[in-house]
Each structure stands twice: as structure tokens, then as C-alpha cells.
Amino acid sequence: VSRPRTSNPGMNAMTTTMSLRAVAPVGAKRSTRACTAVRAQSKMGSSRTGRAVAVFASKATEGTNVSASEKKSVDTGRFALLATIASNPILFGAQEAFAKGGEYGILEGRAAALVHPFFLATLWFGTVYAGYTGLQWRRVRTTQEEIVALKATVAVPAGGDSEASPTPAQTETQKTIAGLSATRKELVAGDFKNKHFNMGSLLLAFGVTLAVEGGMNTYMRVGKLFPGPHLYAGMGIVCLWAMAAGLVPEMQKGNDKARSAHIALNCVNLGLFTWQIPTGLEIVGKVFQFTSWP
After folding, report:
1. CB contact at 8 A, 176 and 154
2. What is the distance of C-alpha 282 from the center of its chain?
3. What is the pLDDT of residues 158-190, one digit of tens each?
């Protein structure tokens, strides 16, 4: 506020005092309004902040509820699986450290992992035995065919002398026929037909089952499969088993082509089975490396 110019000092002091008194209320009003505005803005900010915090807390609570629900569902599934395992006396009590954290109990252990290689090794010998019995049964049929053909060569022609002494060639042929007949009797006594059929049925049933079990066990232990020579060869073996078994009805009808195809498929099968052994032994080594008993 500018002070009026006057020559009287007393008047100057009075004028100054009055001016200050007049300005003070105006400044006080302005200060009060400013404080009120600041307080209003503070309240608005506080309410907005409170709303934001409330919304964030609500979302966090919803996420917590969802995660808790999912966790409860997973825990329920695991409890049901463990209860099923515990209900079997053979599987009870297996809670050791396994390859993938023990989620499947003993099914992840070394004992379960060795089921596949142990029984598949047994089935390899069963495949060799099935091939042997099949060839022996084939000999029963082919031997009979040879006997019939040889008898035709020594048969007495119509109008001939049946009491005439046989020629040396006929005598030799008769000896061959006698030997083949004796061999055929031994083969028939061996019951190779039923042995071959029974072994083939066991190979088909247990082979397919153990092939599926091997893949399932690998997945339970490590959480994934490993596409490679061993897996592909195993898939081929299972398909060849099915194809060879599918030819049996035609073989029983006497179809020689079906019989030849059956033999060829099983020869390829045995070759794949044998080729699969080295890769299988590598997997067994990893089982002993990364699993523990039982």
C-alpha cells in the first residue's frame, strides 16, 4: 500500500496505521480461502486414494480366493491319488524322494521304472520261443506234404504188378518216407501248435500293455516323453504285433500268403526288438542314476 506524501510526521504515522488495519482483514480472508481450498483438495485426494486402495484390495482378495480354490482342488486330487495308492498293501508306505518330487508315490520310484525293461526282456525271449514253436508247427504241415509227394512217386501204377520187388530208388524213397513219418510224429507229440498260439497271445496281450506302461512311467517320472529310436522302434513293434495277429483267421483257412506274411512280419519284429536292446540299456542306466528305491 503506498503511503500518501505529507509533511506532517504525525499524520504520516496515523495514515500508515489505518492502511495496515484496512489491509489485514483482506489478507486474512484470502489466507483463509487458500487454506480451505488446500484442505478440500486434500480431502478429495484422500478419498480418491482410499477408493484406489479399496479397489486394489478387492482385486487382491479375489485373486487370493481364486488361487486358494485352485490350490484346494489340486490338493484334493493329490489326496485322492495318495489314498488310492495307500489302499494297496504293496504300495503302502512309499514316501521317499523320487525323480519328480514324489507326486505319484512309488509309481515314480526305481521299482516301477524297472517293470518295463524287466518284463520286456522276458518278452524278447518269449518272441524267440514263439518263433521256434511256429516254425516247428510249420514243419508238421510241410513234412506231411513231403510224405504225400514221395508216396506218389513209389505208388504202383494201375495194371502193374503190386508184388514186384521195388527198385533201389523206390526202396530209398520208402526209407525217406519212414524217416519223415517218424519226425512228424515227434513234432505232433510236441504240441507246437498250441504252444505257438498261447505264446503269441501272451506276446500280444502283455507286449501292448507293457509298451503303454513304459511311456506312462516315463511321463510320471520326468513329466515328458523322449521321442527317439527307442520310442519309435517300440511303436513299430506294437503295430507289427497287431498286424501279425490280424492274419491268423486267414492262416487258419489255409491261406499260404497269409502264413508267409505272418512269418515275415514277426521276423522284422524280432529284428526291431533286438535292435532296441542297446537304447533300452541306456535308459535303464539313467533310471539307476536319477531314481531311488523302492
Report:
1. no
2. 18
3. 555 556 677 788 788 888 999 999 999 999 999
